Amino acid sequence: MREFKRLTPYKEALSLLLDDLSEIDEVEEIPLEEGLGRVLAEDIVSPVDSPPFDRSAVDGYALRAEDTFSAREYSPVELRVIDEIVAGEESKAKVEPGTAVKLTTGSKMPEGANAVLMQEMAEREGEIIRVLRPVAPGQNVAFAGEDVRRGEVILRKGQVLRPQDLALLKSVGFRTVKVKRKPRVGIIVTGDELVEEFDEGALKAGKIIESNSVLLKGLVRQYFGEPVFYGVIPDDEETIKKVIESAKKENDLVLVTGGSAFGDKDFAHRFVRLLFHGTTIKPGRPIGYGERVFIMSGYPVAVFAQFHLYVKHALAKLVGAKNYEVRIKATLTERIPSQLGRHEFVKVWYENGKARPIKKKGSGIISSLVESNGYMEIPEDSEGYLEGEEVEVVLY
Predict the structure, then answer these.
(1) Confidence band for 1, pLDDT divided at 50, 70 and 90
(2) pLDDT level of residue 36 (50, 70, 90 thresholds)
(3) Is 396 helix (H, G, I), strand (E, B) or coil?
(4) Phi–psi pair at 163, nearest 5 degrees
(5) Could you report the per-residue pLDDT of 176-208, keeping only the tens digit for each?
(6) What is the 3-class SS of 177-199, one letter each residue?
(7) Taking the CB of the first residue and of the last residue of the chain, which one, N or C, has fewer CB atoms within 10 A?
(8) d(CA 321, CA 317)
(9) pLDDT tens digits, 146-167
(10) What are the Cα distances from residue 122, in Å, to 99, 108, 212, 213, 238?
(11) Dihedral sign, CA of 214, 218, 221, 225?
(12) How many CA atoms lie within 13 A of 281 on its CB side?
């Protein structure tokens, strides 16, 4: 079997890939409730102040702070309660010297009041309260625009929308949001040895159940895309060529698993003008890319590594996503050796500031992915990391 004459360094290959892609122009306006995980297509400017008015941050009494300055538990100040309201109501009374309005958390501050006394800091009899402690101007008050001010840019284009982002948009009145169209990603699985369903007879005869399709569908959905599955294709040269040509016309990206090396049945890479074929990554070095098509390994762990090291960055480029990775510092629990000249994808379990490498090896050991919750990268110019060394972990 022919080998690679040259392995393209990881960062060089990634640069070639990203330079080959352009951000999608199409924008969709969708209901806010459907925005989770979508990529914002424009900067968002708040049309209102939030909160829209000064409001109480506690249950208590709205009053003039200066009326309480002399209050002590042994010498309380008496004030008269002139109104009572709850959140969502507005008091028509004006707080004058010597008066107060009882209200609940979230209530609009009445005219004349500049502070709120927590109700447990007062003793009440009828319409009279005895103030036991002083309050300062502005105490226990949430001021208009304290959260967001009218005209303020509250979210930037490229933000991957999270639940808290959607809550912020809802709080200032948005019901819809403009997001980038999801890239269509064709998924083609090749291999004569593969079956899609459990069949005991087929398995005994040497077949295996393919899992790359469900793996890639999930990863594509997780990283902004819409998967389109073309099925399991046998190792037939003309069939593979036909399916790849159709998928190229119908999708923004195409992922082909199997056929990335140089075996007699490795046909997929023959039908794409590749910008690179064979890189320094481990696992998954036979990966190739060109014409918006990835020719990937047939082994699930290698596919997983190839997706995280290349494909997810391509998808992020297509939708203009920013801050789509969670990278965190961690202390390595044991030494990890590596060979110079390869860019290694190392599965880890991150917990309590520590990264523990997963010892299970092999590009077909799917359980090693299940036992990890992130990965670290060892670049080509490193011979690995020592126990106790600080490393960067990318969480799934």
Answers:
(1) very low
(2) very high
(3) coil
(4) -55, -40
(5) 999 999 999 999 999 887 877 777 776 767 778
(6) EEEECCCEEEEEEECCCEECCCC
(7) N
(8) 7
(9) 999 999 999 999 999 999 999 9
(10) 13, 20, 66, 66, 85
(11) negative
(12) 32
Mind listing the pLDDT tens digit for each residue in 295-321? 999 999 999 999 999 999 999 999 999
Per-residue buried b or exposed e for 50-72, using 16+ beta carbons within 10 Å of the residue's own CB: bbeebbbbbbbbbbbbebbeebe
> In this structure, what token pair is assigned to residue 94?
């004006």
The answer to whether the CB of 113 falls within 8 A of the CB of 63 is yes
Task: Give the span between the Cα atoms of 240 and 243, in whole angstroms.
Answer: 5
DSSP type of residue 308: I
- One-letter amino acid at 228 equals V
Q: Is 373 exposed, middle or buried (0-12, 13-18, 19+ CB in 10 A)?
A: middle
40 close to 158: Cβ distance less than 8 angstroms: yes
The two structure tokens encoding residue 215: 């793996």
Q: What is the pTM of this model?
A: 0.88
Residue closest to 83 by CA, chosen among 71, 96, 69, 67 = 96
Return d(Cα 54, Cα 50) in angstroms, integer: 10
Question: Which two tokens mark 242?
Answer: 């036909």
- Tell me, what DSSP letter sits at residue 353? T
Peptide bond into 51 cis (omega under 30): yes
For 176-307, where are the alpha helices, taking DSSP H only? 200-204, 212-222, 237-250, 300-306
d(C-alpha 190, C-alpha 242), whole Å:
13
Q: What Rg value do the Cα atoms of the chain yield, rounded? A: 31
- The residues near 304 (Cβ < 8 Å, ≥ 6 apart) are 215, 219, 369
The DSSP-derived string for 56-75 is ESSSEEEE-GGGGTT-BTTB
The label of the residue with tokens 């990264």 reads 355
Residue reference for tokens 């005869």: 205
Residue 103 burial by CB count (10 A; 0-12/13-18/19+): exposed, middle or buried? Answer: buried
Cα dihedral 11, 17, 20, 26 in deg (nearest 10): -120
Helix, strand, or coil (residue 367) = helix
In this structure, the chain runs to a length of 396
* Cα–Cα nearest to 55, from 98, 103, 121: 103
